[in-house]
Amino acid sequence: MSVVLREAWSTVVPDMNDRHGPLPPMMLALTVVTGLVDAVSYLELGRVFVANMTGNVVFSGFAIAGAPGFSFAASLVALAAFAVGALLGGLIVHRALTHRGRMLLYALLVETACVLAALIVTLASGHPFVGGVRFALIALLGLGLGAQNAISRALAVPDLTTTVLTLTITGILSDSRFAGGGGSKAGRRVLSAAAMMTGAFVGAVAVLHGHPRLPLLLAVAVLAVVTTAAIVLARADAPWIRPIVRK
């Protein structure tokens, strides 16, 4: 248990001389944003995710099969918007390749603008969010989360992908000493899952209690804090800013 707690602590309060420097807590914050935003998309926009594309592929199959409550058009818009966001994130990665802090900052500016625009759309429209408003929200949020996913992939902070937890949860057990592994890094991995669950929980509570815009407001607030930190980090000159070389 002490090892797990140390791993969790080093994620929240990282060693600035570590290979990933201050990035782990920022990735955790973005994971919370994922939970908040997907709570809105699934509960308010009709069984569609804007961050979890695996879910949308499955939902598309359900919709094509005629399962009630699923929209092929909504899933397709989410997939397309996410793809455009990922492309934009890729362009950012390759233009700020030599500095991970700047890479993160530019992506955060894009994501914050998209989520803020989505919040403005909800404030300017009535509730429930239907028709063109629904698809505008799916597109804006999918675009922002696509950029986030592309950047988190490029930053390559271990076990902090911000949008996908399947491999993270698998690693907790498959890499454990019980399975014959060298250690599962359970502290960081559990913290990542808890961050997304926390965002989803808070978002769901807000939506279910009649405050459908509140999760987006909270997401913008978290993004504003992380972006402010990224502005400082974009001027950093430390070992962690060097890009990860993929083999």
Anisotropy-based shape: globular
Report the strand count: 0
Low-confidence region ranges? none
* Total of domains: 1
Helix and strand element order:
HHHHHHHHH
CATH class: Mainly Alpha
- What is the CATH topology assignment? Growth Hormone, Chain: A
Strand content: under 5%
Mean pLDDT over the residues: 93
Q: Major sheet, described briefly?
A: none
Strand pairing plus helix content: what structural class?
A: mainly alpha
**Rounded Rg:** 18 Å
User: Helical proportion?
Assistant: 55-70%
The appropriate CATH architecture is Up-down Bundle
Tally of separate helices: 9
End-to-end Cα distance: 34 Å
InterPro entries: DUF1275
Organism: Streptomyces atratus
Keywords: Membrane, Transmembrane, Transmembrane helix
Transmembrane segments: 23-41, 48-66, 72-92, 104-123, 129-147, 190-208, 214-234
Labels describing this entry:
247 residues; mainly alpha; Growth Hormone, Chain: A; globular
